[in-house]
């Protein structure tokens, strides 16, 4: 077996392990997940998890970092496009750049986005040291980009309220990512979480209106 083939196989095994771990962590949480369950889910030898990731903690961190990088890359590209025409920047366009990647991912039919979404909701709402650290490491950078965009482009919005506007958006975004079905239940079927474009449009309008109220002191 040549080195190129061996390298390709290693990458495939790592990906399979992370996919399986994502599903197990989503279903059981970090504390409830075991490397044995992950190995069984991914149909791999338990030793391969320790070989490639050394520990459950390291595997958890890489599972989060993998898709967080994808989401944040998508957010950054959308925000860059919005800001490329300063005269056309609105709160609506900024918030769409923020929430579209996660709502689209959570509504993806392959199920992977839903697993990631459940994990992110768990850590973003967690008060334990690990959750706080992982949230900061994976999301503080992109958060500051959006806070700065809101501060700069929403007339009358000071930095403090720009931070609150961002945090309000993340709170609503986590509800949309959780996909609990409650909105459908409470609306007696009138509203559906899997209606991606309708969900984005409603969330964006709500967040933009609230941010303008903060800017004007309303």
Please give a structural write-up:
The protein is an all-alpha fold. It has two domains: 1-54, Orthogonal Bundle (Arc Repressor Mutant, subunit A), CATH 1.10.10; 64-216, Tetracycline Repressor, domain 2. It contains ten helices and no strands. It has helices at 3-32, 35-42, 46-53, 56-83, 91-106, 112-124, 129-153, 159-178, 182-186, 196-216. Helix 1 (3-32) packs across helix 6 (112-124). The protein is globular.
SS elements, strand count: 0
Mean pLDDT value: 90
Q: Which stretches of 5+ consecutive residues score pLDDT under 50?
A: 7-11
Our count of domains comes out at: 2
* CATH overall fold name of the largest domain: Tetracycline Repressor, domain 2
Largest sheet: none
Structural class computed from helices and strand pairing: mainly alpha
CATH homology superfamily name of the largest domain: Tetracycline Repressor, domain 2
What order do the helices and strands follow? HHHHHHHHHH
The end-to-end span amounts to: 68 Å
Any idea what the radius of gyration is? Answer: 19 Å
Q: Which percent range describes the beta-strand content?
A: under 5%
Helix content: over 70%
What is the top-level CATH class of the largest domain? Mainly Alpha
Cα shape: globular
How does CATH name the architecture of the largest domain? Orthogonal Bundle
Number of DSSP helical runs: 10
């Amino acid at each position: 077996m040549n080195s190129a083939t061996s390298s390709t196989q290693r990458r495939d095994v790592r990906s399979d392990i992370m996919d399986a771990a994502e599903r197990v962590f989503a279903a059981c949480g970090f504390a409830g997940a075991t490397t044995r369950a992950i190995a069984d889910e991914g149909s791999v030898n338990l030793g391969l998890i320790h070989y490639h990731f050394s520990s459950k903690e390291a595997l958890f961190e890489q599972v989060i970092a993998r898709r967080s990088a994808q989401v944040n890359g998508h957010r950054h590209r959308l925000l860059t496009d919005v800001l490329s025409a300063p005269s056309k920047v609105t709160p609506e366009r900024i918030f769409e750049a923020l929430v579209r990647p996660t709502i689209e991912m959570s509504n993806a039919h392959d199920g992977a986005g839903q697993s990631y979404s459940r994990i992110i909701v768990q850590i973003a709402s967690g008060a334990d040291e690990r959750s706080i650290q992982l949230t900061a490491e994976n999301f503080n950078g992109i958060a500051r980009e959006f806070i700065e965009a809101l501060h700069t482009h929403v007339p009358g919005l000071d930095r403090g309220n720009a931070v609150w506007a961002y945090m309000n958006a993340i709170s609503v975004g986590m509800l949309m990512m959780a996909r609990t079905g409650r909105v459908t239940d409470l609306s007696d079927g009138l509203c559906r979480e899997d209606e991606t474009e309708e969900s984005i449009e409603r969330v964006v309008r709500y967040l933009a209106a609230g941010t303008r109220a903060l800017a004007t002191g309303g």
